[in-house]
Amino acid sequence: MASATLKELNPTGTGKLVLFETRYGVDYLFVHYLIFAVLGVCGGIFGGCFCRMNYLWSRFFRQFAIIKRSPVMELSIVVLITALAQFPNRLIRPTGDIVMAELLVDCNEPGESWICGQEAKDRKMAYYAWLISGTFVKLLLTVITFGCKVPSGIIIPALDAGALFGRMVGQLINSISPGIFAMVGAAAFLAGVSRMTVSLAVIMFELTGEVNFIPPFMVAILTAKWVADAISPDGVYDLSQHLLGHPFLDSERALNMVRDSQDGGTGTVEELIPPAQTMEDITLHTGPHYRVRRTTLKAKLSKLKARGLMDAGLVLVNERGLCHGYLPEPELEYVLQTGTGAARSAEDELDVLEGLVSNFVDRTPLTLSAKAPVEYAVEMFGKLGLRYLIIVEEETARVVGVVIKKRLVGYLDGLKAM
Prior knowledge:
Blueprint: H1 2-9, H2 32-61, H3 65-69, H4 71-86, H5 96-103, H6 114-119, H7 125-145, H8 155-170, H9 178-194, H10 198-208, H11 214-231, H12 236-244, H13 251-261, H14 276-282, E1 283-285, E2 291-293, H15 294-306, E3 313-317, E4 323-328, H16 329-337, E5 349-351, E6 367-369, H17 374-384, E7 388-392, E8 399-404, H18 405-417
Parallel strand pairs: 1-3, 6-7
Antiparallel strand pairs: 2-5, 3-4, 7-8
Helix pairs in contact: 2-7, 2-9, 2-11, 2-12, 4-7, 5-8, 7-8, 8-9, 9-10, 9-11, 10-11, 13-17, 15-16
């Protein structure tokens, strides 16, 4: 129904069902797989270099105080540079989707499009220069624009760069339409940047409608991923998560990192335990009656915010030092904001066993011995999707620490830097 409705509405005005629909009407030969693999290698080099350059640019340029305080200034600079760099080149002057559609054209007549007219000429040096310069301009502009406050995208620019390069390679092959290499090159360059594989092949098929070209897509995409992984192990989205400080954990890679860093030995979970002052701030002693004053909870909440531990919480400990539960920071803030009148008086005591607070307390948080290997903590966070893990003494089960995912990721980043 969605496809039938889209065909009738014709939002693109082209009468085509998919965005970049092509009908080349020719088949590729076995020897062309070598060219598809070469496009994959080039796409991997493009993607690996892009990831490294974008990461270094973001860490360098966006650390300036004036850029942090004035995001509009950064956007204004980006717009100016983009206009100056792209406007002189006829191939990349339009918007990204139009550029992609033009580069995939199958030239049957010279006057069919500007690109077909250029390819019909005997001397194509200027046209080659526009293709090559367009590829590098797309690379450099995407490096400085990805990560701005207003997203400028990564998919269409990478597709454009790959299509430009693929069209250039296609000029050297006379037996088949250069638009085919533009299409495969676009997939290779996006694979090098994003490290997508099967899903990207499906996306390219959906964008172009060329089911016969799924094998060339896969050859170029897999080759690009292998090459890009050798240059930069992390894709652009992983690096972006790291730059933004999001606690993203790739458990399989983290396990390999921990094992390699120990040189045959193994570290213990004790290395993850926060400092004593931090543990004091996030520990809530409930007392024998399991009741705490509202003022105590407010003081604990303010300390969590002051330390930037908004994704942490309070570990509830009884008089024997045993874990009685865990109260996350968002739920704690909600509890303190709930209630009116006498129920919110400063000296009001809240029961952690019954009532409103007890509804938000995790009474059975997962625990791990302080003597356990770090690998156990990594596996538990990765496979169980934990937000926090309570660390206890091996013999007494008394609480000695709390590890949140952000702290574990910070520990792993330290291993990566070694």
